[in-house]
Design a protein that fits this description.
mainly alpha
Length: 80
């Protein structure tokens, strides 16, 4: 693997798979619905789903689809 490869895809974290990614995404969405979402919980799950988000990016998934899958990615705390 070359450094800085554009299509680099990291493996899922140990113990994680497609099913757990779906559960993390659902938990993120539920947390964001709360009046006062727990930013630490969201951040932890976003870190666990990095490999899945990277896969979506490499597949050239439309931005609106990514936004629907990972709404927290477009929150101020994730962008800064």
């Amino acid at each position: 693997m070359r450094r800085g490869a554009v299509n680099w895809e990291p493996p899922f974290p140990e113990g994680e798979d497609e099913r757990s990614m779906e559960l993390h995404k659902a938990a993120i969405k539920e947390e964001l619905k709360k009046k006062s979402p727990d930013k630490d919980k969201i951040k932890a799950r976003m870190m666990l789903t990095f490999a899945d988000r990277r896969r979506l990016t490499n597949q050239k998934t439309p931005l609106l689809d990514i936004m629907n899958e990972y709404p927290a990615l477009f929150c101020y705390d994730e962008v800064q």
